[in-house]
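Researcher: For the annotation table, I need structure tokens for quinolinate synthase. Please keep the output clean. Sequence:
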Amino acid sequence: MRIHMKQKNNTDINISVQSILKKKYIQSDLFRHISYLLKLKNAVIVAHYYTNPEIQALADSTGGKVADSLEMAKFGQNHRAKTLLVAGVRFMGETAKILNPEKLILMPTLKAECSLDLSCPEIEFSKFCDQHPERTVVVYANTSAAIKARAHWVVTSSIAIKLIDYLDSLGKKIIWAPDKHLGHYIQKKTGADILSWHGTCVVHDEFKAKSLYNMKKIYPKAAVLAHPESPETVLELADFIGSTSELIKSARSIAQKQIIIATDRGILFKMQQACPDKILLEAPTSEVGMTCLNCGMCPWMKMNTLKKIINSLTQNKDDHEIHVPKQLQKKALKPLIRMLKFSEKFF
């Protein structure tokens, strides 16, 4: 059960999930201390697949949840804990607060942003929407509370195609934001009339088709799994395209034993647990002779650490608490509820 990875200096390394799980910190005073703090605060950890392996292991071992954005939202809504500790990026914390206004929402750091969120400023996007009042506004979950409040619908990548297909069947013309690659992919799959915003993910936008093609020559029997936030030229080389949860399911069911993964390397922790007999290979994020900027890792996701989790449970909560103004909560809640109700038809 191995993962083949490349570090920034292109040195090959192998990481075993089991070796991570067996590391001393899993049984250490640190984990026991955090578990005690969670019980003391009536708190539970909700972590994204892209966070560090030790964060995911902590969430699993303390009754929390490791999931994609949609399942994180559902878990937070349904769990009885009064405090949700969201290990991810800021928009995930905001979403948790909007859906659970009565709960205390904490994050290990409030500085963990998302490039897609940052690429879609409220004033600019609102003007863009005002220029096309006849269109239905659909925004990705990777957006701020203010952008969600401006939208008719919020979606995650796991239900985006289904929702756009549904709206297209009603004759709706769409404004899509913020990821242009995902927007183009959805347009190709559904044939819908989509006017797309111009944002990109700093991780997925780095995947290179030429380097991936060359990697496929080295591993001719390997399947390629890609997240739809990747460029079109990368998706054209993929055997399966889907959300983080869908990629994990595909890795488990696909016949090939070698799998090239074109998404954030954080997913490899859960993916290898799901398919211990598979060899997982990281897709390249740079051309020959070039260095990658993020090297398959979201820099903001990696800001979540065990130390910061302890700080969020013991220090001044103002440095960790997510606040969303009540009027904004009410507006943003409507498209989020539409998303959750729509997703119930398929999950």
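Researcher: And a one-line annotation?
Model: The first helix runs from residue 17 to 21.
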